[in-house]
Amino acid sequence: MPSAAQSASSSSLELLTIYEVSKILGSSLDLEQTLREVLRALSYQLQMHRGRVYLQGEDGALRLVAAQGLPKDSPAQEIDYNQGEGISGRILKTGMPAVVPNLAEEPLFNNRSGGRDDLDEQVASLVGVPIKAAGTVIGVLTIDRISDDGPCGHFGSDVRFLTMVANLIGQTVRLHRTVAEERRFMMRETFRVQKELRPVVAPVNDVVCTSPNMVDVLAQVHRVAPFKSTVLIRGESGTGKELIARAIHNLSPRKDAPFIRVNCAALPESLLESELFGHEKGSFTGAQKDHKGRFELASGGTLFLDEIGDISSNFQAKLLRVLQEQEFERVGGSKTIKTDVRLICATNLNLEEAVGHGKFRADLYFRINVVTIHLPPLRERRGDIATLAKHFVAKFGRDNGLNLDIAAEALEVLNRCTWPGNVRELENCIERAATQCRNGTIRVPDLSCSMNLCNSSVLFQYRTMGAAVGGLAPSMSGTATNPAAGSPGMVNPAQGRAQPAPMNGAAMPPAVPAPANGAPNGAQWPACASGCGAGPMPVCGASKPLPPSAIVPLPTPQPAASTPATPSAPAPQPTAAGPDLPLDEPESGPLRDRLVWAMERTGWVQAKAARLLGMTTRQVSYALRKYNIEIKRF
């Protein structure tokens, strides 16, 4: 019979379609792509057009995740329904299939997903079924039946077939969500385990830091502490080399043994040998009894040799034997003493350069340069300045029984300083300011640089000339070759800072650049030499701008046999004198003559003479004492 044959053919086609759908659902892990392939198979095999798959999100909204025949200008992720809204929302709310014979006559149809603008030309029927997983509705599957002859009255077979497809889709969605949740759980567990296994940099006593470069230093301290290897700590003066050495000792298995410190630069060679190796009774005048050396006292513990780059060449050979053999003899003795010492050395010198110049033994350098820790200067860890300042303020308050604080404006001024003396200079600056503050809060006027009394100004002036001063690293600024930079020894309005005159005919590196915002008419706001000044309101020095003038640096000590250097060209003089600068100022000559001239013109008032010469009051006072200039009293 034709009807029976047609029914058998339809059932066979539906079974084949179910088989194809099952293969598609198991072929890929991309859920959205898989659902689009399912809707394409339904359209091709059974003429079920405009298929839509909606899935319920975590917020309960029904979102379109796959569609067949969706317009290109309708993004699927922007189409969603709430429960009970439209036909799909009603299916989600009730959990029952829905059949709409004619969409054009359905009041709940809102055509939000688009693609059904031809309902006036043909009849479209909608069949929708819920997608369930474990008895819970998680989505909706809808298809359109399109006919030119009117709506078909029999949709039972379509509902049964789509229910089977929806069940397959529901199981696939549930599996994908389970896999995704397990993957997220495994990622969280992996991250947690990695975090637990990651070495945690524990805080070190008296070491205050948050900057990444110092955190790396502390991580290196934790790594090297458990071993016996020799450690060389390198860094500028005041960066905290001794604190790092003590931290290595406290974190090592030798923490209960002695930690002995020796400053090699503080003792002459003869005393240093006796101090390190000890001496026998009667070995020299004044040796009244046997004396144990630091190597012997530190046996089983740690010996910290600070400023090791300053020891003499003869003593370097004696020290090398101890490091190699772990044995020595006392001064005046013949008995060999064994020792078990973990050696930590520190220096602020360039040992590679000293080895190249023959001032430091290469074999000793390779002996102590096993594990090297570089401490960054404070100017390279500016993120720690505010934290360190607050720490020193709290420390001063505890030591003196006070409740102190520091203002945010003062912290900004401290952040602009270059700190050639590093952390030690910052601590001294905070202590000076704490003694001057009122009402328990350190403010900008309490800082030394606000009164042109910064102790590092003189040192910084020499530091900018390219030479190390007392453990301070020389300036790394490049030599100014731009003609617009101005002549040496003159104030450059573009830079806002006077530069010292060149020595030995070579151009010296410029000082730290001043802020670009200067005072009008070419006048520059005075600032301390360490670079913490800021304009237009002066933080350091006087309350009004000074006229451009030359800064006369203090003379650099020269060897007695050296010949005076001839400058390549005389420094040009300012084209116009300021309102307070007499026209008969000496154009050249030694600093002593200029000092006498300035003091006589100002009635022997040092502050006025300093303004005439473009120097600080502290520099003038130092120069008067240096050249033995007697101050006249009126």
Mean pLDDT: 76
**Largest beta-sheet details:** 6 strands, antiparallel
* Uncertain runs: 464-470, 475-530, 533-583
In terms of DSSP E residues, the strand content is: 5-15%
Structural class: alpha/beta
N- and C-termini, Cα separation: 140 Å
SS field, number of helical segments:
18
What general form does the structure show? elongated
> What value does the Rg take, in angstroms?
42 Å
Binned, the helix content reads 25-40%
Secondary-structure blueprint of this entry?
Blueprint: H1 2-25, H2 31-46, E1 49-56, E2 62-67, E3 80-81, H3 86-94, E4 98-100, E5 123-133, E6 136-147, H4 156-197, H5 212-224, E7 231-234, H6 241-250, E8 259-263, H7 269-277, E9 278-279, E10 291-292, H8 294-297, E11 302-306, H9 313-325, E12 327-329, E13 336-338, E14 342-347, H10 351-356, H11 362-368, E15 371-374, H12 385-400, E16 405-406, H13 408-416, H14 422-436, E17 441-442, H15 457-463, E18 491-492, E19 497-498, H16 591-601, H17 606-613, H18 617-626
Parallel strand pairs: 7-14, 7-15, 8-11, 11-14, 16-17
Antiparallel strand pairs: 1-2, 1-6, 2-3, 4-5, 5-6, 9-10, 12-13, 18-19
